[in-house]
């Protein structure tokens, strides 16, 4: 499984489209461990670009603080699951919490 997390200032970015990099975590679901992490600078943010790009990077899941409804729909069309409302600021901890069914989510912090 490959999990994408939007990151800014080394923390999970609350607005997925305005991050500096996406951290892609290759994880082992059985052992619940992170195998590798790759930080990749995304293409410029334009409507519809990031869901296709992230799917093209092999991601199966996106963990985000906030994301617009249209972006969520585009991810679904590209076969990528989305979890919004993630409040954990440490990207690695958010991934590990997800793997261990301990991830706390709240409201989607994006209003568009």
Structure annotation, total helices:
3
Average of per-residue pLDDT values:
92
User: Proportion of β residues?
Assistant: 25-35%
What is the global morphology? globular
* Number of E strands: 6
The helix/strand series, from N terminus to C terminus, equals: EEEEHEHEH
- Gyration radius, in Å: 13 Å
CATH class: Alpha Beta
- Helix/strand-derived category reads alpha/beta
Alpha-carbon distance between the two ends: 28 Å
CATH superfamily: Dinitrogenase iron-molybdenum cofactor biosynthesis domain
Share of helical residues: 10-25%
Using brief descriptors, characterize the structure shown.
112 residues, alpha/beta, Nucleotidyltransferase, domain 5, 6-stranded mixed beta sheet, 23% helix, 28% strand, globular
Describe what this molecule looks like in 3D.
This protein is of the alpha/beta class. The protein has a single domain (2-99), classed as Nucleotidyltransferase, domain 5, CATH 3.30.420.130. Helix content is 23%, strand content 28%. The chain has helices spanning 49-56, 69-77, 91-99, and strands at residues 2-8, 11-12, 21-28, 33-40, 61-63, 81-83. β5 (61-63), α2 and β6 (81-83) form a beta-alpha-beta unit. The N and C termini lie far apart (28 Å). The model has no long low-confidence stretch (mean pLDDT 92).
